[in-house]
Amino acid sequence: MADEQKPKRKMLVNPGACMGCGYCEDVCPTGAIHVSDYARIDEARCIGCGCCAGRCPMGAID
Ligand code: SF4
Ligand code: SF4
């Protein structure tokens, strides 16, 4: 197979669903998330692992 490298999964936060708990920030292996009023993801640091989405109790990250 001549697969090209898969594009990195782009993670999106729904600010309206985020309650600012910070669980995603704790679980992110690259320190790409910073939570203030809601979670913000630094795309340059994100490797698209999906850990944050799995950890979020609100389903605010997709
Ligand atoms: S997908 Fe992974 S690297 Fe990207 S913000 Fe979420 S936990 Fe961090
Ligand atoms: S885990 Fe979910 S609800 Fe908590 S800060 Fe992150 S995105 Fe917001």
What can you see in these coordinates?
By secondary structure, the protein is an alpha+beta fold. Helices cover 16% and strands 10% of the residues. It has 2 helices and 2 strands. A two-stranded antiparallel ribbon has the order 1-2. The protein is globular. The termini are far apart. The site of one iron/sulfur cluster has 16 residues, from helix 1.
Set down the secondary structure blueprint.
Blueprint: H1 23-27, E1 33-35, E2 39-41, H2 51-55
Antiparallel strand pairs: 1-2
One iron/sulfur cluster is lined by residues 11, 27-30, 32-33, 41, 46-52.
Summed up:
With 62 residues, this protein is of the alpha+beta class. Helices cover 16% and strands 10% of the residues. The termini are far apart.
Task: Name some characteristics of this structure.
alpha+beta; Alpha-Beta Plaits; two-stranded antiparallel ribbon; 2 helices; binds iron/sulfur cluster
Mean pLDDT: 93
Helix/sheet category: alpha+beta
Radius of gyration: 12 Å
* Strands ordered across the widest β-sheet: 1-2
How many extended strands?
2
CATH topology of the domain at 23-55, by name, is Alpha-Beta Plaits
**Low-confidence parts lasting 5 or more residues at pLDDT below 50?**
none
State the CATH class of the domain at 23-55: Alpha Beta
Q: What CATH architecture of the domain at 23-55 would you give?
A: 2-Layer Sandwich
Q: What's the tally of helices?
A: 2
How would you characterize the largest beta sheet? 2 strands, antiparallel
How large a portion of the residues is in β-strands, by DSSP E? 5-15%
Shape: globular
List cofactors, ions and other ligands: iron/sulfur cluster
Percent of residues in helices comes to 10-25%
